[in-house]
Write a structure and sequence with these properties.
The complex is a heterodimer of chains A (115) and B (109). Chain A is mainly β and 115 residues long. Helices cover 0% and strands 52% of the residues of chain A. Chain A has no helices and eleven strands. Chain A has strands at 5-7, 10-13, 19-24, 31-38, 42-50, 53-57, 64-68, 74-78, 87-94, 105-106, 110-114. The N and C termini of chain A lie far apart (37 Å). Chain B has 109 residues and is mostly beta strands. Chain B has strands at residues 3-5, 9-13, 18-25, 32-37, 44-49, 53-57, 60-65, 70-75, 84-91, 97-99, 103-108. In chain B, the strands form two sheets. In chain B, strands 2, 4, 5, 9, 10 and 11 form a six-stranded mixed sheet that branches. In chain B, strands 1-3-8-7-6 form a five-stranded antiparallel sheet, with no helix packed on it. The radius of gyration of chain B is 13 Å and the shape is globular. The chains are: A mainly beta (115), B mainly beta (109). At the A-B interface, β4, β5 and β10 of A face β5, β9 and β10 of B.
């Protein structure tokens, strides 16, 4: 079974631009979560989608948004990029929603650099 | 608020045993996870605890005490490839994982 895939793997943008990152979950997985990882803050939860609905959101500004399609693929968008948005963006999928024992499988991440 | 504490760095010798502690204070608890992350790679799942007690999985074991807000990951028979960061994470509901900043483990020969 193929793992979680994320595209692109690396991205360089300038301040003020916007960016869209894509995530394809493991086949059959319907829940997709997004995380931002930086050296100072570690892994921080952005949002989670299930059946095209955002069910949970972390403490990030409205510049960060996402969506999920009917095939469970997900995208996240960051508008008006700031230098502080430079980070590794990780997507994780899991098969069932809301159940505590449901480990999340992470993709390789998209490394975003904002200059 | 959400608070998860782990030691920043630990060192150990090949073949030894190491225990990585994690304390947490979160609004909501739906299980605690341990992940391993090698430099430049994605986190990979190691263990999950939702009830008090010890879960054993080969060389790795994880313990949870919900009343104390405490967990540990025990690694036995350390190997060089175990050098990595170990992340403690609490599921606070609806797949929202709150992570600690991770413990970087260095295994030396």
């Amino acid at each position: 079974k193929a793992g979680v895939t994320q595209t692109p793997r690396y991205l360089i943008k300038t301040r003020g631009q916007q960016v869209t990152l894509s995530c394809s979950p493991i086949s059959g997985h319907r829940s997709v979560s997004w995380y931002q990882q930086t050296p100072g803050q570690g892994l921080q939860f952005l949002f989670e989608y299930f059946s095209e609905t955002q069910r949970n959101k972390g403490n990030f500004p409205g510049r960060f948004s996402g969506r999920q399609f009917s095939n469970s693929r997900s995208e996240m968008n960051v508008s008006t990029l700031e230098l502080g948005d430079s980070a590794l963006y990780l997507c994780a999928s899991s098969p069932r929603p809301g159940t505590g024992g449901n480990e999340q499988y992470f993709g390789p991440g998209t490394r975003l650099t904002v200059t | 608020g959400q608070n998860i504490d782990q030691p920043t760095e630990m060192t150990a010798t090949e073949g030894a045993i190491v225990q990585i502690n994690c304390t947490y204070q979160t609004s909501g608890f739906n299980g605690l996870f341990w992940y391993q992350q090698h430099a430049g790679e994605a986190p990979t799942f190691l263990s999950y605890n939702v009830l008090d007690g010890l879960e054993e999985k080969g060389r790795f074991s994880s313990f949870l005490s919900r009343s104390k807000g405490y967990s540990y990951l025990l690694l036995k028979e350390l190997q060089m490839k175990d050098s990595a960061s170990y992340l403690c994470a609490v599921n606070t509901g609806f797949q929202k994982l709150v992570f600690g900043t991770g413990t970087r483990l260095l295994v030396s020969p």
